[in-house]
Amino acid sequence: MPSKTALNPPKGECRQCWLHAYDSRAQHKHLGPREDCPECVAHMNGHPAHLIVR
Ligand SMILES: [Zn+2]
Ligand SMILES: [Zn+2]
Question: Which protein residues have a CB closer than 5 Å to ligand 1 (ion)?
Fold first, then answer.
C-alpha cells in the first residue's frame, strides 16, 4: 500500500512520477535489477498534462 505522501503529490507535480519516486520499491518490483521502468522512461522527456496536479 503506497504511503499517504506517495498518493498526494503537491501542485505542479506529476502524479505518476511522484508515486514512482515515493513508492519506488513497490511500483518497480516487477522489474528486473537492470530493467528501466517503462512508465518512468516514458516521462523522461515530459509529463502528460492530465497527470500534473492542478
Ligand atoms: Zn511524470
Ligand atoms: Zn517507475
Answer: 14, 16-17, 43, 47
Answer whether 0.85 is exceeded by the pTM: yes
Which ligand has the shortest distance to the CA of 31?
2
How do the pLDDT tens digits run along the chain, 54 residues long? 899 999 999 999 999 999 999 999 999 999 998 999 999 999 999 999 999 999
Alpha-carbon span 4 to 9, nearest angstrom? 9
Residues 6+ apart with CB under 8 A from 41: none
Residues ≥6 apart with Cβ < 8 Å to 15: 9, 51, 52, 53
